[in-house]
Amino acid sequence: MPADLVLLSARLLDPGTGGLLPHTALAAGNGVITHLGDDRTARALAGPGSTVVDLRGAVVTPGFTDGHLHPVSGAERTMGVDLSGCRDLTAVRAALAAAVTGLRPGAWLRGWGLDPNAFGGEPVGAAALGPVLDGVPALVDLFDGHSLLASARALELAGVDGPREFAQGSEIVCDADGRPTGLLLEDAACELVEAVAPRPTDAEVRARTAEVLRGMAASGLTGGHAMDANGPSLSVYAALEAEDALPLRLRVAPWCRPEADDDAVAGLVRAQGTGGTLWRVDGVKLFMDGTIDNGTAWLETPDCHGESDHAFWPDPQRYTQVVAALHRAGVPTATHAIGDAAVRHVLDSVEKALAGDPAPVRHRVEHIETVPDDTVRRFARLGVAASMQPTHCCEFTRADHTDNWSRRLGEERAGRAFRCRDLWAAGARVVLGSDWPIAPYPPLQVMAGARHRRPADLSLPPHGPGQALTPLQALQGITLNAAWVAGEEHLAGRLAAGHRADLTVLAGNPLEVPDDELAGLPVVLTVVAGRPTHRAAGL
Q1: Mind telling me which Gene3D superfamilies this protein's record contains (predicted)?
Q2: In-domain check, residue 310
């Protein structure tokens, strides 16, 4: 049978060795690589319906996979005002004021990406925004995705007028007189106001998700590990695939919340493997804590505000039981654990699960923002992957530790931020991702951040340069290791016959491009299952 895709005049990059393969051409059919060879033999495999592309020396790598993102919920959350570029309150107020002028009377304002560092020394609260939101119902997502800032009118419409008790680590932040400041921490508190805010229609969410996924494909992504299946997510993926409009291969891990009983956990087990051709449910996402910036992480000792001293699960031992049940069923878990106590408890739980059933299951910990040496060493021994998002360190912390994250932790713990290199050196499988919409999704930007540890403003100094990954490690973190943690190393992550024809094609060799130029390296072609999902003009 003729090949579906033939790529000629290519440089084929092996992420295992960092060298170029001794081939100049690749052919694919039925979604997999069928041939690696020279241009003449590959061209002979083309038929009338084949897509033949002369790459003119461009570099082909296995498809880039983002190890942690939220395509559908992120698409919905980013339908409002983008505040991610606002570095101070003046910029935040100006962006919100401009958005308010376009609102019809009574309409809600949504914003996203608000960095608490923009508040400087002021408390994070609606009052700091001045009169911009007077009388306007508004909800603004802080960048961490674990907190909201609600205007006075939004709180009024939701009937939130004071503190409340929550079973989990949520809080309506109030002033000394018991009046809400507008800051809502974690899901239970946020949902009180979100419940009365208007939501986009399913069609609007689907259209926005399609737009986001097209952008991801254009950035070189061929796949992603979607860390939620909330709301309409699964139906959105199914609808887009039915319309031939799903340009990424997605592995979806639905959430298991602390209130889940044994029947709910069994339902998550039954859901495994369901899905379509390019998407499937595989794994379960859990949360062990919140975030350091909010004071909702779980630390061995409280932060400098006396906060971040407890787990997200009211009964951490119940978490341990759930992990054991999922492990026995062969279901891999991905646990959000940011603080050192949270990460320790996840590793303790996996160790207990292995003691009860030694069968290998590829569990993983997400984020791992600050951990001591003894915790770093445990990952490899337990076979637990370290899922890291280096651009969080780049964009939301500072080398001089004057940022909110570092001030809360203090010098010692802030000095062991995002220990990508140490985890790698200790034998852990480090998987790279963006956590979009928390940080930008372009994979070259993620890899660049892992290599230089600097923010987008490259004139600023790096935070923890000793934790930078090498160019080859960064490439492996978004190809080989992403395939391994998904149990797909026999199908993906390499350029080899029989492997998926998921390919990212770049204008230059990412291992040779300087760290500070990598994010700007052009993506000339993206291929999923042998079909181009992005093709640069002129190619």
Answers
A1: 3.10.310.70, Metal-dependent hydrolases (3.20.20.140), Urease, subunit C, domain 1 (2.30.40.10)
A2: yes
Give me the CATH number covering residue 99.
3.10.310.70
At residue 250, the 3 state secondary structure works out as strand
Residues 289 and 178 in one domain: no
Mean pLDDT, residues 470-498: 98
Token pair, residue 141, equals 């997502």
395: left (phi over 0), alpha (psi -120 to 50) or beta: alpha
Type of residue found at 76: E
182 and 305 co-located in one domain: no
DSSP 8-state symbol, 496: -
Number of domains in the chain: 2
pLDDT band at 388 (very low <50, low <70, confident <90, very high): very high
Residues contacting 523, CB < 8 A, separation 6+: 218, 219, 220, 444, 504, 505, 506, 507, 534, 536
- Co-location of 457 and 337 in the same domain: yes
* Residue 101 lies in domain: 80-195
Identity of the amino acid at 355: A
Are the C-beta atoms of 386 and 379 separated by less than 8 Å? Answer: yes
Which of 148, 172, 195 delimits the end of a domain? 195
Q: Which two tokens stand for residue 194?
A: 């979100």
Q: Which two tokens stand for residue 252?
A: 């979806």
For residue 165, is it within any domain? yes
Q: How many CA atoms lie within 13 A of 99 on its CB side?
A: 24
**Would you say 74 and 145 are in contact if contact means Cβ atoms under 8 Å apart?**
no
CA angle (145 as vertex; 172, 101 as ends), nearest 5: 85
Residue pLDDT, tens place only, 424-438 = 999 999 999 999 999
Q: Quick one: what percent of the chain has pLDDT higher than 90?
A: 95
Helix H segments across 367-410? 373-382, 390-396, 404-409
CATH number where 358 lies: 3.20.20.140
Buried b (16+ CB within 10 A) or exposed e, 96-106: beebbeeeeee
Residue 497's identity, in one-letter code, is A
Say whether 348 sits in a helix, a strand or coil: helix
Is residue 457 located within the same domain as residue 318? yes
pTM: 0.95
Residue 298 shares a structural domain with residue 436: yes
Q: How far is CA 418 from CA 65, 370, 481, in A?
A: 20, 6, 18
Mean pLDDT of 51-58: 98
Pairing of strands 180-185, 171-174: antiparallel
- 368 assigned to some structural domain: yes
For residue 101, being part of any structural domain is answered with yes
Q: Strand, coil or helix: what is 12? A: strand
**Of 378, 423, 435, 338, the residue nearest 143 (C-alpha):** 435
Number of neighbouring beta carbons within 10 Å of residue 471: 20
DSSP string, 255-273: B--TT--HHHHHHHHHHTT
Task: Specify the amino acid at residue 367.
Answer: H
Q: How confident is the model at residue 538 (pLDDT cuts 50, 70, 90)?
A: confident
Q: Which of 168, 195, 222 is the last residue of a domain?
A: 195
Locate all alpha helices (DSSP H) within 292-368, ordered by sequence.
Answer: 316-328, 340-356
